[in-house]
């Protein structure tokens, strides 16, 4: 009986630890069905809590062993409430030189928290829209990868520094 109490205590401790993310302001994932088509844009609407504090922004990704590249190119576009738009093409390393994925996780699904921007102040009040799409190409080929395999979820996170 004592062993089950210890297991219950450990389980409850893990739940408290995971749910207490005091830096999180916005953190949402959207699933990618089977393969991520190059024209598929994943959008997030963010309404920041204030216009005075600075925040760090992240693109979050979950990938499986079906992901066959060691890097990832993304196009991330942020639209401001009053019409201004910023578009960035970003490259992230997904695996080390030996091919081992860099994300965290105990199963074949790895979670990646990728820097997008730091110390961002949302000066305009209202909804910001963040659009994310992949821009993968294979070496020596002009056309991009039409359907990217191995990415299961794409997320966007805003947190206090």
From TrEMBL:
Say yes or no: keyword Lipoprotein present: yes
InterPro entries recorded for this chain?
Answer: Motility-assoc_lipoprot_GldH (IPR020018)
Recorded hits in Pfam families, A to Z, give:
GldH_lipo
Alphabetical keyword list: Lipoprotein, Signal
The source's domain of life comes to Bacteria
Q: Where is the signal peptide?
A: 1-18
User: What's the protein here called?
Assistant: Gliding motility lipoprotein GldH
Task: Tell me the organism's taxonomic lineage.
Answer: Bacteria, Pseudomonadati, Bacteroidota, Flavobacteriia, Flavobacteriales
